[in-house]
Structure formats: structure tokens, C-alpha cells
Design a protein that fits this description.
The chain is an alpha/beta fold. It has four helices and eight strands. α3 (152-165) packs parallel to α4 (185-195). The structure holds pyrazine-2-carboxylic acid (VGL) and zinc ion.
Length: 201
């Protein structure tokens, strides 16, 4: 029996982050079979879903003169702008069709407030507004997390660092993640995760 205190957190394995999607991560779909297999070894499986309203403030389309990957100063700090992606209820926001979702105990949606983005599964990008995941894990007695999914340098990275700072023992399975990797973001993410005490496996 896998230990009850150890959860698998599957970050944003959604169509828009896979080849052909609006914010496609190279080879994003290649990790799906390995993630499905890893679910068997965990007592708790939690999926996250990037879930933006149309016209979300993180979309470059909402900022005249800006294009995807430009940086703006949002009220809560610097914010990268993205193509429109993971719009609530769209095919792009759906999980990759091969991802096993039946095993999920919880699906946590994030980024649903128009004025604020949320990379992390724990806190929105103001680093203050909670998603509720910490309370859920605490009440289930879960203190150990394995993270997989998309994208290594954004949502996986922010989730892993927040989890480590909250006191969880955190491992990121890099072989079951894929990165956006622009402007050195993957190297910076790896350094930041290591510094926070995340194990990179
Ligand atoms: C993500 C950019 C924007 C991610 C989500 O899942 O890494 N990246 N929204
Ligand atoms: Zn997003």
C-alpha cells in the first residue's frame, strides 16, 4: 500500500499546453503515459487545471500593443503575457484525452479571477490569495508531494517552491515534466526550486 501521506500532484496536463494547443509545450503530451503509470503508486492523486475566463488579464490580447511573452507590471508584480489559453469550458482547457482522470481525488482549478494569474497550485500570483489546496492536503494528513506536468518552468516550478515553503517534502520528476523555456526560464526555475529545497529527480 502506498503511504497515505504522499500525494501525486499533476499540474496542467491540458490540451492547450500540448502540441497543437494555444500555448503548446514541446513534447507536452509525451509525459502522459508515464504520469498515468505513476498514479498507481500513490494514495492520493490531485490534478490541477489552468482555468481562465475569456479576456483574462494574463492574455496579451487584452493589452494593446503587447504580444505573447512580453512582460507587464501588474498590480501584484511582473506578469508575463500569454496567448489566449485554457479558457473555461473550451477544448483547450480540457485535460489531454489520454490522461487518466478517474483516479483523481481532487481537481483544483486556478487562474479563474480575471485580474490575477495563478501559476501555483497553492497561491495566486500575488503570492497571497490561497487556492485552498494547502487546507485540503493538511486535513488529509498529506505532507509529501511528487509533482509532474506542465510547464516545468512556470506552473510546476511555482507550485513546487510554494509547497516547499509551506513545509512539504517535495520532489519534481523532471522526466515527467516539459518546459516552455524562454529567456533562461528553465535554468532559473531549476535554481529556484533547488534553493527552496525541492528535490529534482
Ligand atoms: C502555465 C503559463 C500560463 C503553466 C499556465 O501551466 O505552466 N503557463 N498559464
Ligand atoms: Zn494560464
Amino acid at each position: 500500500m502506498p503511504p497515505a501521506n504522499h500525494a501525486l500532484l499533476v499540474i496542467d496536463v491540458q490540451n492547450d499546453f500540448c502540441p497543437g494547443g494555444a500555448l503548446a509545450v514541446e513534447d507536452g503530451d509525451a509525459i502522459v503515459p508515464g504520469i498515468n503509470a505513476l498514479m498507481q503508486d500513490h494514495a492520493a492523486v490531485i490534478l490541477t487545471q489552468d482555468w481562465h475566463p475569456a479576456g483574462h488579464s494574463s492574455f496579451a490580447s487584452q493589452h494593446p500593443g503587447k504580444k505573447p511573452l512580453d512582460l507587464i507590471e501588474a498590480p501584484y508584480g511582473p506578469q508575463v503575457l500569454w496567448p489566449d489559453h485554457c479558457v473555461q469550458g473550451s477544448d483547450g482547457a480540457a485535460f489531454h484525452p489520454d490522461l487518466v482522470t478517474d483516479r483523481a481525488d481532487l481537481i483544483i482549478r486556478k487562474g479563474f479571477r480575471k485580474a490575477i494569474d495563478s501559476y501555483s497550485a497553492f497561491f495566486e500570483n500575488d503570492h497571497a490569495t490561497p487556492t485552498g489546496l494547502h487546507g485540503y492536503l493538511q486535513t488529509r494528513g498529506i505532507d509529501t508531494l511528487t509533482l509532474v506536468g506542465l510547464a516545468t518552468d512556470f506552473c510546476v516550478n511555482y507550485s513546487a517552491v510554494d509547497a516547499a515553503n509551506l513545509g512539504y517534502s517535495v520532489t519534481v520528476r523532471q522526466d515527467l515534466c516539459r518546459a516552455i523555456d524562454f529567456d533562461g526560464s528553465l535554468v532559473a526555475a531549476r535554481d529556484g526550486m533547488r534553493e527552496a529545497g525541492v528535490s529534482l529527480a
